[in-house]
């Protein structure tokens, strides 16, 4: 992957990862011109009113723009009446509703799929913003329509203080080190912790390609879930070797350290830990966005072989693979999958973002069963190849 990438303004992925990723911002003019026109402001408005969509409507008071209100979805038409001059509509996970948007993740092949969060879009009229703030995640901000002025400032962290009494985590000040107006197709990479402030110059759509990392609390939570479900761990541990009677009210340091060792030996089991992590990391960001499909059987699939269909990842689902004990295993939407060896390689290609043809090579009962199960749980989808 050592060629210069247009999306990075002509630097290589290696250079970006070593110099910019998680460290400093990067502005690229005309990085993603194809994003313009995929969604129009009206599409964003309509999407925000749909049932399953996660959206927020942020308003600033006309009399005092430092007073903010936030209304989270479900949003209704009435929420858009009597609007102040300054507002922003945020819609999460537009990549789950627009295949064209989902395809744009492919412009960032140097970051693995498991790091992706979602593509959020913001819609604001001139002057609209979500305030001066910082995020704990990496984001590529891409201008889709109109113009937005971005100011970047100081590095912040968990101890940074916010303006009191507001529903958003607004920074009182930003020490401006960067001040540029982005036009459709322009991209700005913002690393975690960097203060930023984007103000619409006109009717404006900005896309945030967000990346996530799990936190330790969630990792522990997932580990505890998977250990609690493990029958082998449900039997009481054997008692410590007792040589002489002890005080009956006391649990000795020896006894405690024995129990700690029992626990630690399980916590250090790499398979148990990896499985718990994979379950967590494969959890979808918005489980409600996963569509429910009509049940498909292996007979239907047999008929569809060589009819020009493609198998592809469902954008709202999350499918990952990893090597465990020398074998490639799959996890999707928070659970480990059981996939036959004969379909393993093809499913890796699908998880890597490829669309693979449903052809005669799939004429195997195990493969067809795997495909049917993956389709019925909406982990993958079946599309006519011309789409
Ligand atoms: C926006 O698009 O207005 C907000 C995106 C962000 O600051 O993360
Ligand atoms: Co932000």
UniProtKB/TrEMBL annotation:
Family annotation (Gene3D superfamilies): 50S ribosomal protein L16 arginine hydroxylase, Chain A, Domain 2, Cupin
Domain JmjC: residue ranges: 100-228
Pfam families per UniProt: JmjC_2, WHD_ROXA
Q: Which GO terms describe its molecular function?
A: 2-oxoglutarate-dependent dioxygenase activity; metal ion binding
Per its UniProt record, the required cofactor names are: Fe(2+)
Q: Does the keyword Nucleotidyltransferase apply?
A: no
Q: Which domain of life is it from?
A: Bacteria
Q: Which residues span the membrane?
A: none
Q: Which keywords fit this entry according to its UniProt record?
A: Dioxygenase, Iron, Metal-binding, Oxidoreductase
Establish whether keyword Isomerase is in the entry.
Answer: no
What protein am I looking at? Cupin
Organism equals Acinetobacter lanii
